[in-house]
């Protein structure tokens, strides 16, 4: 999945790609830096310029034999970061703040 955004919050398309075990190439915007581990679960681009996107695509192509494994790691990392029940997750965070 390639998503060279200029501005993004938490991309639903990126989350769906990760949930399906796909490697992600994204710019460092929104939650991408938190969700994509550079060179492990995908590739991060500093800015959405043609030159930087080209470099990222070249690097990804050289790593194409690792895409399946990167995708599996991407899915695992996503579900470690995002809990299945957001209400319980939010409640736990509130409890931590109160302590």
Automatic annotation (TrEMBL):
- List the Gene3D superfamilies hit by this protein, alphabetically: Glycogen Phosphorylase B
Pinpoint the Glycosyl transferase family domain residues.
Answer: 1-71
Enzyme class of the recorded protein, top EC level: transferase
The alphabetized UniProt keywords are: Glycosyltransferase, Transferase
Q: For this protein, what is any one GO molecular function term?
A: glycosyltransferase activity
Q: Which InterPro entries match?
A: Glyco_trans_1
Keyword Transferase among record annotations: yes
Domain of life per record: Bacteria
Supply the Pfam families for this chain: Glycos_transf_1
Q: What is its EC number?
A: 2.4.-.-
Q: What is the name listed in the Swiss-Prot or TrEMBL entry for this protein?
A: Glycosyltransferase
Q: Which organism is it from?
A: Thalassobellus suaedae
Q: What is the lineage of its organism?
A: Bacteria, Pseudomonadati, Bacteroidota, Flavobacteriia, Flavobacteriales
